[in-house]
C-alpha cells in the first residue's frame, strides 16, 4: 500500500483506475468502515484499485473554527487499518485555506480526476468545496462519476459518529466506545522520560508522548501494550498526578505487568479495554500504593476473565 501526499501545488496524473472513499475519517469507526466495505465491493466487481482520500488536518482547525486539533486516529493509524484490508492507496490532501476555497468543480478536477478516480464512495452527509457547496449530487452530476452514497450507520438508536466517540472517551465509556470503533481504542507514541515517581513507589511506568491524540477521561484503565509486536497486560494512568505536584498537562503513563526492560525512545501502542476508576487525589503515598496493588490485581482478573470467555 502506498501513501500519496497531495500538496496544494502538486500535479498528479494517475493511470490506474481507482475506486475511492472520500472524507476525513477520523477514527475509521464502524460507520466509516461501511464505506471501506463498499470500496472493496466495487473494486472486486470492476477490478479497480482501492483507495481512501483523507486530509492531513481537520478542516475546521485549519479554518480557525477549532482552537486545538485532537485526533482519534493519526494518518499512520489509518494507513495500518487500510493496509490490513488490502487497500492500494491512501491519498492525503494537504488541507489549507487555498484548498478550502476551491470550487467543487476545481476540487473534483484536482483531487479526483487527476488521481484516476473512476468511482467515488461517500457518506450521505459528505460536503466539499468552498462554503461546502459540493455534495454527493454534485459528484453524480460532474464528469460522469459513478458514486456510491452510504447511509448513516446506527448503534443503540443513534448515528455512529466521531463526535459520539469523543463523548464516550470523555466519559470513560470504553465498552460502547470500542463497539462504535469495531476495535479497541488505541494511542501510540514514543516512550519519554517523566518524573520517575512510579519507580520510586514500586510501580515503574512508561511515559508516552501522545502527540495530538484525543485522550480518554482522567483515570486508571486496563490496557494491553504492544512493544515490538509483543503484547503485555498493563494499567494506564491518564491525568495530572494530583497526589503529588500536579502536572500542567495531562500525562499518559503505563505500568506494564511482568515487564522489566529499558524502552525509552521506543514506539509503543496502548489499547484501552476498561476504566478501572476515575482519577482522584490520595491522602498519602502509602494510600496510593495500596490502591495501585488493587488496580493491578483488577487488571489480571479482567484479562483472565476475557481469556476464559474466548476459550
UniProtKB/TrEMBL annotation:
Signal peptide: none
Catalytic activity, as annotated: riboflavin + ATP = FMN + ADP + H(+); FMN + ATP + H(+) = FAD + diphosphate
Molecular functions (GO terms): FMN adenylyltransferase activity; riboflavin kinase activity
Enzyme class label: transferase
Functional pathway: Cofactor biosynthesis; FAD biosynthesis; FAD from FMN: step 1/1; Cofactor biosynthesis; FMN biosynthesis; FMN from riboflavin (ATP route): step 1/1
Pfam families listed in its UniProt record: FAD_syn, Flavokinase
Residue span(s) of domain Riboflavin kinase: 180-304
Keyword terms of this UniProt record: ATP-binding, FAD, Flavoprotein, FMN, Kinase, Multifunctional enzyme, Nucleotide-binding, Nucleotidyltransferase, Transferase
Family per similarity comment: Belongs to the ribF family.
The protein's name in its UniProt record: Riboflavin biosynthesis protein
